[in-house]
Amino acid sequence: MPSATGPSTPAVVVEGVTKEFRIPKERVHTFKERALHPLRRPGFNAFSALEDVSFAVQPGEFFGIVGRNGSGKSTLLKCLAGIYPTTAGRIFVDGRLSTFIELGVGFNPDLAARDNVVINGVMLGMTPAAARERFEEVLEFSELHEFVDLKLKNYSSGMQVRLAFSVAIQVDADILLVDEVLAVGDAAFQQKCFDVFHRLRDEGRTILFVTHDMGSVVRFCHRAMLLERGRVRLVGDPDEVANHYLEVNFDRQQEATRARGEHSDPNRFGDRSAEIVEAWFEDERGEPTPTLRQGREVTFRARVVFREPVTDPIFGVGFENADRHWLFTTNSTLTEERTGTFESGDEVTFSVRFENVFASGRIHATPAVAHFGGGGQWIDRRERLVSAVCTAPRSLGAMVDLPHDFRLELRRAATPSEAVR
Prior knowledge:
- By secondary structure, the protein is of the alpha+beta class.
- The protein is about 25% helix and about 35% strand.
- It has helices at about 30-35, 75-80, 115-125, 130-135, 135-140, 155-170, 185-200, 215-220, 240-260, 415-420, and strands at about 10-25, 45-55, 60-65, 90-95, 95-100, 175-180, 205-210, 225-230, 230-235, 270, 275-280, 290-295, 295-305, 310, 315-320, 325-330, 340, 345-355, 360-370, 380, 385-390.
- Strands 10, 12, 15, 16, 19, 20 and 21 form a seven-stranded mixed beta sheet that branches. A six-stranded mixed beta sheet has the order 5-6-7-3-8-9, with helices on both faces. A three-stranded antiparallel beta sheet has the order 2-1-4, covered by helices on one side.
- The radius of gyration is 27 Å and the shape is globular.
- The relative contact order is 0.11.
């Protein structure tokens, strides 16, 4: 891991950057309105997206930038990329820069993949010859061989993003600006994207990574920064920043709960447009049970009642042991990208069925319902709502006991007489 305080020259330095947008109080929509009132000068309201932001990123560092929607993350990346001028402050970049901000910008829908790869590659800084040479690599990574002669206007949005990502990773840049581009394609393609970012990090590229996914922050980043309302709230260890990010979300949601005059539960978070009213475990016969036998099928169920209309909520649950180590988490996005629209009064029960491989001891379930789109915008999250005791015939000290075969294959040493022969 690169040192954040080493003697090397930083790859990126941001000093006191402020970015303001002017929003007109009155809009002129037609030429007639302008002609009738030629001297009218509409006033403006100033909106500050970034305020006095300062930080430095060392060469080879994978630096995460997190925050709620509207906190200024994408604006900051666009200032770094030169898309937006800063209102105040300075930005220094030492090295060749490539952006993964708006994948597919510049694609021509009336051209096929080959031409678009060359055009997009040139826009990202490659020479036309280099872009053409790498076309087969782009096609191989994007897995779009059978659609190579199809015009892009006939591609799905997911196919276009896959092609754009495959072009972007071909750019030989020292510094990469990445804005929420890991959630492209299906699970297999997403894993390829993760592998690419592992490789780029291992190669010592400097990467600034904007995301809502705290798992990716902890997984990839050496350090991270939390933005809140355009200001730097914290810069430090990814685990610490991820925890503060969740606290900011929970604090906001608890404020909304108090504003509605509702009781604030320290182990419950969300705007309560739907409520998890109960949860339980069932054994392999479908009977509720407080005891889970290892090696048997287990089902977790949670009942949710909607208080307001909600579109495409995400349902999920996490299981942790008594030491608060997460054992297993899952949610509805793994099987259902969209869950549908629910009206006030609707009730739904979601379930997760799995073989119990957990070690002996008590496990706790934290069910949750969240708004679609990520960012930790909870509808209702109930920490350690229900628990059960796992029983097992043995205990080897691990968190799980996976079904497995253990074998010994003996090859005896040759005797002296056999060795001579």
